[in-house]
Amino acid sequence: MTLAHGRPYLAIPGPSVMPDRVLNAMHQPAPNIYEGALLDMVAGLAPDLKAVARTSGHVAIYIANGHGAWEAAANNTLRPGEKVLVLVTGRFGAGWGEVFTRQGVEVQAIDFGKRATVDPAQLEAALAADAAHEIKAVAVVHVDTATSVKNDIAAVRAVMDRLGHPALLMVDCIASLAVDRFEMDAWGVDVMVAASQKGLMTPPGLGFVFFNDKAAARQVESPSFYWDWGPRANPAMFYQYFGGTAPTHHLLGLRAALDMIAEEGGIEAVWARHEKLARAAWAAFEAWGQEGRLELNIADPALRAHAVTALRIGGDDGSRLRAWVEQKAGLTLGIGLGMAEPDDPAWHGFFRLGHMGHINAHMMMGALGVIEAGFVALGIPHGKGALAAAAAVIAEA
Amino acid sequence: MTLAHGRPYLAIPGPSVMPDRVLNAMHQPAPNIYEGALLDMVAGLAPDLKAVARTSGHVAIYIANGHGAWEAAANNTLRPGEKVLVLVTGRFGAGWGEVFTRQGVEVQAIDFGKRATVDPAQLEAALAADAAHEIKAVAVVHVDTATSVKNDIAAVRAVMDRLGHPALLMVDCIASLAVDRFEMDAWGVDVMVAASQKGLMTPPGLGFVFFNDKAAARQVESPSFYWDWGPRANPAMFYQYFGGTAPTHHLLGLRAALDMIAEEGGIEAVWARHEKLARAAWAAFEAWGQEGRLELNIADPALRAHAVTALRIGGDDGSRLRAWVEQKAGLTLGIGLGMAEPDDPAWHGFFRLGHMGHINAHMMMGALGVIEAGFVALGIPHGKGALAAAAAVIAEA
Amino acid sequence: MTLAHGRPYLAIPGPSVMPDRVLNAMHQPAPNIYEGALLDMVAGLAPDLKAVARTSGHVAIYIANGHGAWEAAANNTLRPGEKVLVLVTGRFGAGWGEVFTRQGVEVQAIDFGKRATVDPAQLEAALAADAAHEIKAVAVVHVDTATSVKNDIAAVRAVMDRLGHPALLMVDCIASLAVDRFEMDAWGVDVMVAASQKGLMTPPGLGFVFFNDKAAARQVESPSFYWDWGPRANPAMFYQYFGGTAPTHHLLGLRAALDMIAEEGGIEAVWARHEKLARAAWAAFEAWGQEGRLELNIADPALRAHAVTALRIGGDDGSRLRAWVEQKAGLTLGIGLGMAEPDDPAWHGFFRLGHMGHINAHMMMGALGVIEAGFVALGIPHGKGALAAAAAVIAEA
Amino acid sequence: MTLAHGRPYLAIPGPSVMPDRVLNAMHQPAPNIYEGALLDMVAGLAPDLKAVARTSGHVAIYIANGHGAWEAAANNTLRPGEKVLVLVTGRFGAGWGEVFTRQGVEVQAIDFGKRATVDPAQLEAALAADAAHEIKAVAVVHVDTATSVKNDIAAVRAVMDRLGHPALLMVDCIASLAVDRFEMDAWGVDVMVAASQKGLMTPPGLGFVFFNDKAAARQVESPSFYWDWGPRANPAMFYQYFGGTAPTHHLLGLRAALDMIAEEGGIEAVWARHEKLARAAWAAFEAWGQEGRLELNIADPALRAHAVTALRIGGDDGSRLRAWVEQKAGLTLGIGLGMAEPDDPAWHGFFRLGHMGHINAHMMMGALGVIEAGFVALGIPHGKGALAAAAAVIAEA
């Protein structure tokens, strides 16, 4: 039998759960894109996006996914032949590097593995070795959804400042914006990349590049028409916001999502909610891990993302668990992306729980509850008291 | 802080959670009510409704809520001055009696209290005393959402048969249809009343009266135009289905809901899901009840509804818990309807968990999880291991 | 080929076109019906409904269609055996009479045919003959959607006043509320019946009974539980508003519709729009009628409804036209209800154009435009200049 | 007063009217992007898109608007320093040229003005002068929404073939796909660019590049990651379809739109509908133009698009008319894009009527009807009989 017939819960690390209010806002006739209400509404998006990103800089909105936003950031800042230092802490760091390469940019990568954050010492060594300042940018992912590691961006900036290195600091916050604390200006981030479908609770289809005046000043002479962040961030005519036709329905959805963030109490409240929910999940996973093979991919809580938790469980228990909770209980977990290749048997020993965006205590406790049921049903050894431990964290709210 | 910002879960005992698919089906332009697709669609509703009710009899659909369906059942079957025997096991039994009274029907009530089912012995005594067969109908609620008691309808019929009493057996399945096993024909039920907003997963606004040939034969000469079940169940013209304008959008929603029931595997699969989920809830409540004051209103599991569970917790803990889980965790529990008056301090010592309709294991485990969090947060004493116990029941799926 | 693939326009005389905003408002999770936002919202409906009805009296909201509202009005005001004078100007007048009859009320009907309004002289004669004041109520339809006649309600009241007859004046505004000017208090109407699916732009499923203090004072001792307007109009507890479970989603839709009326500029603006659009339609129909057989059912413009226009065209031209515009052009016209029986060949010589509720100049000109195309395509003789004549009326806006 | 309160009709040349069915299909929870139903659905899109484009080639879907699709086409086919011959027949031809330029491609443009199609003789002269075959591609817009001109693509190919010129033929069908007849393979088109928000009836946010094997063979070594059409058209892994996260909700909408095209009878039926509706519009505009200053921008019907009609009316009559029909009648017309600058008084002498996608006879006749009303209201001279003339065209259906 199955107990899945009810509202399914998609707990993959993005797209996240779309709020009914966002979907409702998108269920509208097409608006006029030359005059009227849409134009006024769009003018109000940038200030609210910048408040979420904690910056007084600029924001360009792209009709694109996160990969498009990566390319936009690369296209505006680096000329073919210039060098970027990419700090890799999982699949998405490597992915950004590939985008740079395709733009003709020389990529110098440091790989910190799949279970660790950036090591400041290695970073410092690499930058110190660059006496000629050939490295024009340092690119790092704030939260890597594959590993669920969270990098300390302020620490990266501190290394750069200590060395007086002039490179731009470029950060991928696709998985972390409006989830994990991120302070663009205070942390000295020059360029930041995000997308709509995670913390911003809007269907996939919008990418964002935030940039400060330093980055604007460094812009290459002639980026591509589509990626050029200049007119998008500071349009003279409305169509320039989007380099052509506006993504009307996504904008309606994004407006609703930003309103929801404001009504919750602003970005600090959103961060606090995600932190507490993540801690509840960790409490459960740590308790289960007391017996059997379950293990959080990132051991140190200080280095864990609040957006997603990657788990190692070994054998084929990851795939079996995912199948059970989806078919029996209405919960869809994420695959263990980037930990092994899909045709490698080890692939089946991983899974991830997404907990970003429109998520509350009920959804989290439900996810944990059916994971425990799955462990029991499948005979997967696990420690006791996990759900009570999670509930105790929720109780602190 | 609050952890409620996510998809809220309304776990009151009706209206239940409306499936996205039902809401989507209702988001349509108004259809033609004189010709076309709507007419064909409506013709297919009755067979599917009767399959859900396990009857080969008739069904009349009313634009009304459950109270309207009560009135429809009364209006068709009993003349002013005739007598009905009402078996009261909670607020809704009493409510139906009031509707009969307003129709001029004489009501003889037996009250079995708020924590027990119909006692066959008392019923037998009452019927045996009616040698003249002045009692024309016996009315009983299958599941009373106030007390969460479930009556044994087959047992009621057995008493009537044993005595050869010719009264109609009329059953209120508003809370139980498509939730708890109900066999209209096999159990000898003559008239059954239901509504859209619980197991049928459609917004409030439709009432149903199912009736067999015996009840049809007994129909009073001229029931009211609106309540007359004859043309509704066997219309010569389309508008007679609904005694006037069809409830177009509700019908679209109902069609989707009936499709969902069929796709789940039919009514047996739906019953099995509800039973398992109810048992998971009971396992948690029983474990919590090992310490402190929490108590299931209905002690005997065999007498408990699968649609809702009524709890007694005392003091103001019921109201405090309801407030906490709603404001902090995104879960709305039901008030303790009918257990005390709202201005009585005892009012605050009750709550209910609805678990009917579009509910899966994730939703149930989430509800239980945040209830435990609420107990912890509010310092309400409770037994340990409740969530694990619930998960173990889910694991049987 | 067909040119129908686009947004279809349903121009039947109800249900009318549902605004996207209303459908959107209904596309929501089920709300709590015991506490919270829904309760506050519902409290605000009555004042706005009364503003639309131009009354300071009371309003009871029913989960029902218009036939249910008819029955509610009858059930509260007239005892079995009492007499009502029903003024019949089409199918719906006769229909209301049938509802009274089924309640045991004695119906005295005056039939004014299908092409005329109430004749004050005949009314005066009937009332004058009732020296004993056995007639307890006079019931009349404001606008009959079958004939598209509009009765002069103030004139009916004037006759009653002139004779000092104490009967209640009961008016059916199902098709006219929020369409044609209606002044409940100023015109001396005691009871008024309406429904959601026409001028109120909300799916079928809500009926309304407005009543003044005189009618309230005359209420029968114990109307049925479901129809009793007392608790609905003046509830002590929330559930009494709806005699049980609230029609949650319809209420959300109705709220949006009432907001739209207010934002348009209030009921006077809504009336003015409907009048102008109706006059545009008449201009076209009159021009077409200069050749061929097309004829407006109601000759005198002062007696025509602003909600719907009934046409006579003879032969099978009505049915042919309806089929052509629906299949070829995306317009659904109304059948000629009540003019002939469906199995009478004459049935096919009628059609109706609904123009109530959410309708603007574009929709009206489109309807008229494709009707002309249909005339041309089908070789139906018709006068020239009709569309230009209609456009000239629209130009007065 | 205003007669605009009803369903507004947005008749700008894109975004077009979104069908309720498309919006409904998009009103869904986020689907899993790693497994399940979405993956199967996406695999079925390409065949249906190619059927609409009449090609057996390849299609790459981009999260982008039409400008993004332009850039994708340029990025895959032309190296910096290579030459493209751009045939300009309005704003959009020029716009595509700008995108090429920004990619470092040398643009040779021939401007045919704003009221004419490509002149084969000029094209032939330009190609003949390119004996060295430095021109690697010829780029032309099929339908320019600014001028409403439609170019004869087969004629362009004929010139190229006659000269044996090896350049790629690249066509922008953003405004014409699923509107005007377009035969990619039969007409020898190598690369074709389109977008979702016009004939494909899906909100802005998807761009498409169709290409044949010849174009694939010519692909530059390493186009940008995001624009690379290779993996998108022939993905080894699902995420490659979209170069990262799939645009989940747009895909659901596109699926519904493609289903609607199939159900209408396929692309031939869609083309026939658009042609007839365009001819109805032209009949009206030509009749109005018999008096006063109104003039179709493209004189020769054979050169007019079926997607949009650009009008010249002079003075400020364009802006006055647009304002009147929007505020009074619920119709939004397009501005006269590209005919003059917005700060030039001449700007106000133009307007456009979009008639692409989800449009039927009712919508078209309504648009024409209220335009006539606007002429009357504003005292703008115009010929008589326009609406009757349009209706006569519709009658041919």
Description of the molecule:
Chain A has 397 residues and is α/β, with parallel strands linked by helices. Chain A is 40% helix and 16% strand. Chain A contains 14 helices and 14 strands. The first copy, chain A, has a seven-stranded mixed sheet, with helices on both faces. A five-stranded mixed sheet of chain A has the order 1-13-14-12-11. A two-stranded antiparallel ribbon of chain A has the order 6-7. In chain A, a hairpin with a 4-residue loop joins strand 6 (143-144) and strand 7 (149-150). The model of chain A has no long low-confidence stretch (mean pLDDT 97). Chains in contact: A-B, A-C, A-D, B-C, B-D, C-D. At the B-C interface, helix 1, helix 4, helix 5 and helix 10 of B face helix 1, helix 4, helix 5 and helix 10 of C.
